[in-house]
Amino acid sequence: MNNPFRLTLSFGLLFSLFMIALLIQYTVPYAGGWSLIQNTLFAYDTSNYKELIVHLTYLPRLAIALICGFSLAIAGCVMQFILRNPIAAPTTLGVASGAQLGMVAGVLLLPADVALPSFIPAFVGAAFASLLVFWIAAKKGLAPIHLVLSGMVISLFIGAINTMLMLVYERYLSSVFIWGAGTLNQNSWESVERLLPLLCLPIMGLFLLQRPLSALILGDQASNTIGINVKRIKLITLSLVIFVTAVVVSEVGIIGFVGIVAPGITRLLGVRHLSKQILISGVIGSLMLLLADLLTQPIAAATGDLLPTGAMTALLGAPFLLWLLNRQTWPSQLRATEDTAPNFRQRQFLPLCFALLVALFVVSLAALWIGKDSQGWHLLINENMLQLRLPRILGALFAGAGLATAGTLVQRLTNNPMASPEVLGISSGAALALVICALLGLSINRYEQIAFGTLGALSVTGVIWWLGKKHRFAPAQLLLTGIALSAGLDAVMRIVMSSGHEDVSTLLTWLSGSTYLVTYQDAILLGSGVLIFSTLAILLHRWLDLIALGEVSANSVGLNSLLVRRVLILLIAALTTLCTAVIGPLTFIGLLAPHMARSLHQNSAKKQLVTACLLGALVMVIADWVGRVLWFPWQFPAGLLSSLLGGAYFLYLMRK
Amino acid sequence: MILYAIVCCKFIQYNKPMFQLNNAAFAVSTHTILQPTNILFKKGVVTTLLGHNGCGKSTLMKLLSRQNLPSQGQVLLDDQEVTQLKQKDFALKVAYLPQHPPITEGVTVTELVRFGRYPWKGAFGRYTDHDHSLVAQAIAKVGLEGYQERFVATLSGGERQRAWVAMLLAQQSECILLDEPTSALDISHQHELLALIRELNESLGLTVIMVLHDINMAAKFSDHLIALHSGKVIAQGAPEDIMKVDVLKQIYGMDLALFPHPITGHPISYIP
């Protein structure tokens, strides 16, 4: 760690403290400044309404921000340590979507006269989702990779259910939208009183456990031999972390970013000991959230909107992380180190391929001809159906294939099984461009929609390129840059969504990846693009195999790593842009199709790419068809159903 | 006349250096790991680097394999600065085996060894029968027949090491750099591997530069030994010049005694 860098960061810390002091002065109600706070704290006078307001709303809000930032950052730090992945977040193991499901179920199922604080259903939902994750990963001995995968699948799966419910019961669930974006508004000390004991105990537990925990860095086997029951330690700490996260999320909603970035900054500061890492992450996290919240308050007051702090955190944190990334030199290689359970098997490639192709063909025909209307199921084989349904089927098919290819490329390039095309922020760019259009009140037609989406995606690609150049596109830096970008862009989007704009529900449909609007031209454009780029990717399979050796060995056999990274990034960007512009952002396919291909024992790059492609197409076509007929006359976006169906299948594979 | 020319060529070829370090040094911020060094690595010769941990051996290997660039001075390969070569051309001349080869997920032995053919065929060139037979030969040479379709990650440490050596062999470069190639091997496999490398050196004229910890093995299988201490070359020469009590004391900082091998008569070192 070089001294100037540390100096800059210390200055940063001082500066943020100064900013906080200044902002408090500015944001205290009735322009009372610090003196009003002083009065409230030391000479509280209940007859003074100003002091009353400060005491009951302003101070609890500050306290909540500090507490939640601290807890989330600690949870993130431990989570990243146990999962050995620098992009893991406290919510990686399904807590957030579980809590949201709890909220949704609470609103929909509980009778209106049962006055339950929203905390309880949210917490029950979060606990349920986490237990599910544990249950699935337990079969494979709670290895980091399996925990991460099952966590992400459960998140997507439950997230899809949530979005479906929101599409159907939109009117009842607008409060969930605001909660989902994370609000810190308080009107008494009740939340603080509830949170403090619930958070203090598990956090103390984490500190007590830090010694056996830090031994886990040796890897599971070595830790076992020095007398640590790895499985038990992991289970206990993860439960504590999840408990902490669930408590925070249930109380204030989903506040992203703090949990990922605060531990990251701590590591950049060169803090090595786990106990110090945990503590310093906590302090940085609480400062970050407090700062974000203090900045949110005047903006929210000025615009009159209910601006969610959670979104603001990401909005402010993203540029900071980008700056930090640009300062640091990064190791050119990031292996998400893990003890792999060596259970590789050979499986015939061609028969599998053939079977998938046949399945794809049959399913496409079924999707073309079998439909449902008010009279029930029917089989229609005629020209009309071809006109009506073929474009959307082709759109789903090619988007699935394209995103599966992009996902495989991203995971191989970054050597990180949690990576997916969205991680780079390209699809967020496309989405944001459209959201901004909607916000400005431009009613745009289909072509303009595609054009604007492409423009947004291309600008994000440009930014990634520009930021990555300095570090030779090192995977670690690339991933974190992408996370920062997409978090920032998503934050803007969430702010727009919670503002209750009338176009929100149309956007929600598009954001879930829908095929309703796909025309013949779109399908042809998408199809030819996906075919060209996927073929190129498959032709480059030797590169993809070689980069798995790590930079040193790959260079030793004559691979030009820089060139390879550049070409792969361009391919990923092209595929993601195409699919997102036409169909909308799809989370599931890009993340899980590569894993599904691996679980079918297709390990080499060529086989994995082809299999993932076919699987992606198959899942999307099925999802599109089911979405059309499941809840007639409603239609569900294919992207949602692909998370649902694919998620269920993947969970079955993992538990098998 | 023709014969003379061939002999001449061979003579010239063998006397030209493969690598040449001109005042090359390496430092991380203010900490110098390798002092300015001048060394010649001759073609067709097995050179072994000796010295205790942290003496700069691995740093020197990293300069040769151009993972690190010298902070001052030059590293020349065939009279050309290493940085001027394209990645693929460099790979045709030099192959490198890191001390801890990465664990590869879902790669079989054959696939791993075939990676060695990449510099010859690039991303798109078809692998011919020639390539496949070279891959098979390389696997046979390290004694991994019957393991072709096994996944590298499922092999034992020694088998994994040999699979990587096979990849280096399939690469057919002029020079191979091995950073402690025997660290994961038992005594019989150590001997087997070093004998194989020696045989390749003698039959194909392969240039070998490696790091070894076992001084007796190093003396037995090398033509030239280079000893480093605190980033400086403190002794170099043929094994019989290094296998002396005073030189060994200088290298390892402890007293080592020697006795003649009962059959060959070469000196063998032991801890008295």
Defining key terms:
heterodimer; A: mainly alpha; ABC transporter involved in vitamin B12 uptake, BtuC; 2 domains; two-stranded antiparallel sheet; B: about 270 residues; alpha/beta; Rossmann fold; 6-stranded mixed sheet; 12 strands; about 40% helix; disordered N terminus; membrane (chain B); ABC_transporter-like_CS (chain B); ATP-binding (chain B); iron (chain B); ion transport (chain B)
What does this structure look like?
The complex is a heterodimer of chains A (656) and B (272). With 656 residues, chain A is an all-alpha fold. Chain A has helices spanning 3-27, 33-42, 49-83, 95-109, 119-138, 144-168, 174-180, 190-208, 210-215, 220-225, 230-252, 258-268, 274-303, 309-327, 349-369, 383-414, 426-439, 446-469, 475-498, 504-511, 520-539, 541-547, 551-556, 561-583, 588-599, 605-629, 638-655; strands at 370-373, 376-379. Chain A has 2 domains: 3-327, ABC transporter involved in vitamin B12 uptake, BtuC; 352-655, ABC transporter involved in vitamin B12 uptake, BtuC, CATH 1.10.3470.10. In chain A, 74% of the residues lie in helices and 1% in strands. In chain A, strand 1 (370-373) and strand 2 (376-379) form a beta hairpin. In chain A, helix 4 packs across helix 5 (119-138) and helix 4 packs across helix 11. The two termini of chain A are 46 Å apart. In chain B, helix 4 packs parallel to helix 7 (157-171). With 272 residues, chain B is α/β, with parallel strands linked by helices. In chain B, the strands form 3 sheets. Chain B has a 6-stranded mixed sheet, with helices on both faces. The relative contact order of chain B is 0.15. Chain B has 11 helices and 12 strands. The chains are: A mainly alpha (656), B alpha/beta (272). The A-B interface holds A 2, 335, 340, 342, 344, 346, 539-540, 542-543, 545-546, 548-550, 552-553, 555-560, 598, 603-604 and B 29, 65, 67, 86-92, 94-98, 101-108, 111, 115-116, 118-119, 123-124, 149, 151, 153-154, 167, 171. Chain A: It is found in: Cell membrane.
